[in-house]
Amino acid sequence: MRKQKSFRQLIGLLFSAIALVMPVQVQSAEHKHATHGVPIPGACAKADTPASLQCARGVSSVFDSKGRLWLAWAFGGHVYVNFSDDKGKTYSSPVAINRTPEAVAAKAESPIKILVDRQGRIFISWTMKLAKRFSGHIRFSRSVDGGENFSAPLTVNDHLEVTSHRFQSMAINEAGDIFIAWLDKRDLLAAIRSDKPYTGAAVYYAYSDNHGQSFHPNIKVIDSSCECCRTAMAMDKDGLPVILWRHVFDKNTRDHALAKLLANDRVGKVRRASFDNWQVDGCPHHGPSISSSDEGYYHLTWFNNAPERHGLFYAYSKDQGKTFSSAISVGNYKAAASHPQVITAGETVYLLWKEFDGKQSSLITMQSVDKGKNWSEAEQLLQTTATNEHPLLLRDEQRVYAAWQRTGEDYHLIPLRK
């Protein structure tokens, strides 16, 4: 029993190591996906390089209620925040959140997360790497004075052994309650000590009802999540979040599941959200995305690499995940279409992803103006040969934007068609 378990863990670590070097999806014999981008320019690797967006890692961005664009990113052991009042043409000087440097995990599936509430309070979460490989803690800081000062970082996970607490997502409701969900291996440690089998990791979350001053004890959603695909979270119309993640069904079917919170401290039924039946004993490093519309539709997008059903997919649910529309395939699988994002604005749904032709990465978008029933043709927004982050979608009061960080270049914020 122990030898079999150790072998499975070794295989999982091997897949994780491959994914760190090539942060896209698990490669199959039928279709190999290339790494997006080229090596980081030498200037960004020098010890004396000043912090700048051109060398930033794990960049995320959000608009506040007044239209100011806020960015959070990592460089040189620090998490930084800065802003733009002209849609990304110019930026303020960056402010370091953590005064004491720490090992910040900020790339691929682990970008920094940033939110701003209606009162202008800023909330940041990230993963701090620990001494053991693939381990980490979920960290959090806030500013209550418009970004001039940030609180000393606190650790959100209340299990502090050196294991994996990583791949977090974060959401906030109109009341100012903050929710952070992540993948957690504390239960795997317990199973090993008891010589019991355990598959994957678990999904945990914590919430704050005092604007981030502190968090309530961690709550487990479910066991047997996939270990290395980032979680996703969206706020439903009732002010309670829905969490989406890649789950391990049956023996090793890596599809997706979601759970809607029924109260801040109460989790609803876990429901299967994708049905591609990808059988893989490893870590795809390829998390999903979810958006909840004003009327409560859930819009989902994801990647799977099953032999008969592979690539990027989109589906929606009108009944909080009880049933789903037929999933449609999007993107060019042969061009390594990857890391899709979804966001809604009224009845319009936007999809965004990137593709790679062997030399250049391309940013691609599609739109639906009827709640996801019909879709426009795919449109290419940008191309680059530079190392690049996974793309993001964000919105202000007027429109939706695509955001793309490319190492050594300016941060690109691209307004999408209304």
Descriptive account of the structure:
With 418 residues, the protein is mostly beta strands. The chain has a single domain (2-415), classed as Neuraminidase. Helices cover 8% and strands 42% of the residues. The chain is built from three helices and 28 strands. Strands 5, 6, 7, 8 and 9 form a five-stranded antiparallel sheet that branches. It has a four-stranded antiparallel sheet with strand order 1-2-3-4, with no helix packed on it. The longest helix is centred in the N-terminal third of the chain and has 20 residues, at 2-21.
How is the secondary structure organized here?
Layout: H1 2-21, H2 42-45, E1 57-63, E2 69-75, E3 78-84, E4 95-96, E5 104-105, E6 113-116, E7 122-129, E8 136-143, E9 154-155, E10 165-172, E11 178-184, H3 186-193, E12 201-208, E13 219-225, E14 232-235, E15 241-249, E16 253-263, E17 266-272, E18 289-292, E19 298-305, E20 310-317, E21 328-330, E22 338-345, E23 348-356, E24 361-368, E25 379-384, E26 392-395, E27 400-404, E28 412-415
Antiparallel strand pairs: 1-2, 2-3, 3-4, 5-7, 6-7, 7-8, 8-9, 10-11, 11-12, 12-13, 14-15, 15-16, 16-17, 18-19, 19-20, 20-21, 22-23, 23-24, 24-25, 26-27, 27-28
